[in-house]
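Morning run. Coffee first, then this:
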Amino acid sequence: MAKKRVQTKAKRPQLSDAEIPVVGAREPCPCGSGRRYKACHGRAAAHAVTELVQRPFEGLPGECDWVALRELVPAATAELPLKGGLPEGVPSVTLATVLPMAWPALRRDDGSVLLGLQNDTASGDISRDLADTLQQALAAKPGTPVQGRRAPADGPRLQDLLDPEGAFEPVVHSGFEFWVPDAENATPEVAASLERANAAAIPTVKLTGVDAAYWCETPDKNHLRWVMPNPEEQLLDALARLHAAGRSSLGEGTRLVGSFRAHGLTVPVWDLPSGVGAEDVEKPAAEFAERLAAALATDAPLTPDERRARGGLTNRQVTLS
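And here it is:
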């Protein structure tokens, strides 16, 4: 009898979790395990997508401003200090609300890094996705945009990469010229993207007297949107107390109209007359902050009027994330 030929298998290249592409649930897993994707790496991928981190920016300096830049502010940047300092060849790392062509990140020709904040993310943990993109950008060749991918489920988060003692100081811009050092010599694609972005940007100003409050101008009226760090139930009670007492406005013609819920924080919103600018609400906002602090310190049960005010505010609450 002829001898059976010994079967040999070539070694498959070892792929990291982040390099394993997404395939159909019943297809063989690309890792080479021989199992179906849904029973192998698809399980971790599905879990990562569905497990929502309610407060992805919790623990970062300026959590409220992170939420504002993610959801409310069209054009802004902030320098990001890294743990242990910047790597060699990287003069700066800058967070940007949006980048041209919706790139997740960009390594500029000079080695500096721009990290986009408002991009879609692949999992339920924005912090982990952004950290993975940041690591890719730090390792990318200068002059290279970074493409999005599924971050490893056990990868670092922003809280692991950023200096916890570093300041987070957003700078709001009127347009997106910060994208390119020389806008006049930008590529046609970037120039077109810049023009579209500038046309859609809503004029926005960050107040200086209180934290994480942003004035914006719209055609019909202006608004103040103020991201607050307090627990939602406690904050809504305090706002209801002030609203029922007629002390929730920011001056004549202004009105507290409701709130957003975004990334685990509450964002009260005021309507302002079209003639009221950011400088006009600086003092009223500071005075409101004092009234709010007193209301937050009160633990008495809500009165019937306050409960009705709270119900009205809750009914007008919108969840952004």
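Confidence is low (pLDDT under 50) at residues 1-12. Good start to the day.
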